[in-house]
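Notes, p. 3: input format for complexes.
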Amino acid sequence: MQEKDLLQLFEKMTLEDKIFEMLQLSPVFYSENAEETGPYQHLGISPDDVYRTGSVLGIYEGAERVLDIRREHYEKHPLHIPIMMMGDIIHGYGTAMPIPLAMGCSFDPELVRECYHNIAVESTASGVDVTFTPMVDLVRDARWGRVMESTGEDPYLNSEMCKAMVMGLQGENGLDKPDAMCACVKHFAAYGGAEAGREYNTVDVSERNLRQYYLPAYKAGVDADVGMIMTSFNTVAGVPSTVNKWLLRDLLRGEWGFDGVTISDWGSSTGVITHGVAADYKEAARLNIEAGLDIEMCTPCYIRELKNRVDCGEVDIELVNEAALRVLRLKNKLGLFENPMRHTSVEREKEVLRCDKHMDDAYKMVCASSVLLKNNGVLPISEKSGKVAFIGPYVYTDRFCSTWSGKASTFTNKTFFECADGKGDYLFAKGSHRLGIEQEREAVCMKYEIDDSDREQLLKDAIEVAKQADTVVMMIGELYEQSGEARSHTRIKIPHCQLELLREVRKVCSKVAVVLFNGRPLDLREVDSLSDAILEVWLPGSMGAPAIYDMVTGAVEPTGRLSMTFPYCVAQSPIYYSQLNTDHPYNGNPNNRFSSRYLDCPNEPLFAFGQGMGYTSFEYSDLTVEPILKRGGKITASVKVKNTGERRGTETVQLYIRDFVASISRPLKELKGFKKVTLDAGQEQTVSFDIDEEMLKYWNIDMEYVADAGRFAVYICHDSTERQYVEFKLQEE
Ligand code: BGC
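Output follows (733 residues plus beta-D-glucopyranose):
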């Protein structure tokens, strides 16, 4: 529809019509068992009003059902304005990719983009127009359950991933195309900074740290033309994000030029009452609209109070006009006015959901995102491994998805057992359930039924199997439900019953490799001490089992590198590689009393950002950088990388920079680039990076985004623990 036609339609809309566009309904209004009165009363609407509402979220029943909803809505809407369908498709709709934290570990924006393109193709066929993805919250604390939805702890990596996800979802040829859906960058802002990793907790960061570390990934989404931004539950400097004028109007729209739609998180607009900054729905409605919130997700402030606020002159009608118009413009961009069914199609759904291409990409992503954390030569298994047993609850499950993966969990995936059985002289045992009775408290909260009755027998059988094996591959980890929203933990270890299994197996078998399934960095001290290899596969999605079988047997190599630090123990949290030096840095001398260190545990994490290996080895040499960078100019830094092992392999070459002296203290190291190179055995390649002034900028003492002249260190290396560097100077003209 032309803009002028849209404006004509807008002219015809009453204030109420506009406010209905700004309301998003929960799926309960469309479920067969919808309560007659409760939800209607909550919002103060009637069943007929459902057909006037702008959008709904969370309907994953597939094309047929969505077509019915769209049709009925379109026919019954007084002005025939089509409904917009939204949902949380965070790592796949029919084909589940690995979780986003895993995808961060791929260091492969191109593949990430392709995977999100596939997600758009599948989701649109089933009738989803907007997805609440990507979550780009910077995460430094593994206690927070939602780290699994983010791509990790680094602003640069997160920005690259955010761009890739937005571009993959929104396509290249316009939002109205069948391979495109609107992305929604969330949760604006700094939700990942929750104090002590406790869900929904207070966030308090300085404006400098906000701009330097937390905001870049959201900004990358805006620069990639994301259509929607979701506000977060938390406060920023005491002001809840959803009513934070500085954040939403001055920064997001003013400074960054965002002209898309903003949406509250579920309950964040009424949450301002709980936060204690509004007395009631009336005040919350005014604060929300003044801050620039366009759509209210599932809560009643706007629908119940906005009209009254306008009628009594407390809220300027222009604020409602601009918000409602933005919603309509998004519908128009999505092509809904021309085609109210959009690309929802039962035939297309059959064709694209879990099609070969999507499953192949999902397989590639499992290999690209799995991180081999350690390997004392037991992986990959081969003839030298002798008799191999696969033991653990993940041998027999096909549940490799996390939350919010559309319809993916309704499909049957191959179990590891099905992939491996008959392919070798293997033994198998389950060994334990995924959760035991020690974790009953959290199981209740997750509505997960623990059946511990056969625990002893399972363990006994597994020990018998392990005794017969020369090598055991343990397939263990968190239950998928243990990470995600409202899944904060102070114990970040694998479940007790599975640790018990590992201990017992280790007693009878001298070679043990662990394949680890989880949604967050864990305290792996004990797993580490009981194993010879650890392959981190996260929650790998639909193609988990076949890809893991191929990685474990060496047909393919895991090439992921950690996008989030694995602490030594939970007490180190929050922990991240890009720390400041402090004025009392620890120099490794245990007698050094007055230094920034723990007396009872190392400062270093167990596995650092960027770490990970494959099945070959690489050597770095001849690190060089041009010595002088002039403002506005460019220099090159390079290193030689050689595959010193016996097979072809892929290395993720990482570029870090340190600013030695600035007007504020700067991190010891910051990631500024990465390249994945694949080399044959014995092959050597020079890997180069350009460095320019832009890469050196930071928010200085006067809150200007600048680069200071002076000395910088360059590291081109395997991971963030590297100590060897070369120097260059940034010089004035
Ligand atoms: C989550 C959001 C999500 C929304 C809708 C909220 O609880 O915080 O990330 O998009 O629900 O499902």
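The longest strand covers residues 649-659.
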